[in-house]
Amino acid sequence: MKFCKFFFKTHINTYRELPLIGWQGLTLGFIECTVSGIIYFLLLYFVNTLHFTLVVAGGFITAYCIGASIGGLSGGILTDKLGSFYISILGLFISGMVYLSLTLLTSKLLLMVVMLMLGIASYMFKTANNVFLLNSCNEIGLKEKVVSMLNAAVNLGIAVSVLLVSFFSHYGYKKIFLIAGFILIFAAGYLFKSKQAKENAMKKFKEKKQLSLRIQFLSLKKSVFFVLGWLFFIGLIVAQLRASYPLYVHNTFSTLGAKSVGILFAINTLFIVLFQLPITEFFRRFRKIILMGCGGFLIGIGMFMLYGVSSYLIAILACLVYTMGEIIFFPNAQLICFETSDTHSKGFIVGLYRSIYATSLIIGPVLGMLIYNQFAANLLWLLCGVIGCFCLIACWFYNHNLDHNNMQ
Asked: pLDDT of 40-53, one tens digit each?
């Protein structure tokens, strides 16, 4: 009973506290993620509709991932230079135009270029919108809730996207691309016409000094490098969800067919959407660096629990443990970077954060499949567990050193 009261109270209070400008950012983030969920089906489009080989189609997806890595950092730099308002509009508009162009293009070279552009534009928007949202929240404790709400909105958006594309795919992917393109262009136009969003973003932008990229990089604190390093390693674990994880689950529980994977992904999404906010609020009193370590540990252990698994119930429990780690790790890691960075480098640090995470998502599936094929899946899950354990130990020692230095 107490939990239910806390659950509903946390959601209601957060919805009331969030300013209108924050709701605009969350809504745009949800819309963009709903549309960008199409990326999970593009491999099918390239192979089944355009009749490219798997290698070529994989090259298109790789181009998108490389673009995402570039877009995260470049979006952050441009946000510091021009402001989050204009970069958000630019990212949405270019993404919309790319989706429209996909209805016409069949050339291998041009598709490679537009997929690269899609990755850049998508992550430019994500970075700029993230900075915009965090800057719109000045109340104590609201930033944690906003990051959590954005994470929930992103997961909900991707889930909705998968359902919609699965349902409408028989009408043809080109019609889906047309709808997606016009939605993003309309969203860009809506944001451009939003006077309040422009005034809020430009006010924050005018308060900032323009610093060179070299000075911004040199101004980063040790804690930021520490967090970004572990973000990369934890990202390698998360990346297994795109390749090794679904393959292993499908092969291990072959009697369930594709449902074996679908059920686990549905549990992951539903758990995040429902419990991201209450869990964030419950743990808000603890130090972020310790929470980050615990989150990384749970992500690693959640994967390690797949070691030699034979019961689907254990796979579900492993999914819940992993999801709990995801809920705890990412908001705290991002907030440590944002709050400890220089006032004039917020865009740069958020962009660097997204760029490093995107890079880990490129390298992770390749490393994971290499270990999976050359050695064994169990070795992969063991390594994931080891990374999670070291993350917790490293964060504990880092926090201990902070306490020791503060006492001197």
From this structure: 888 888 988 898 98
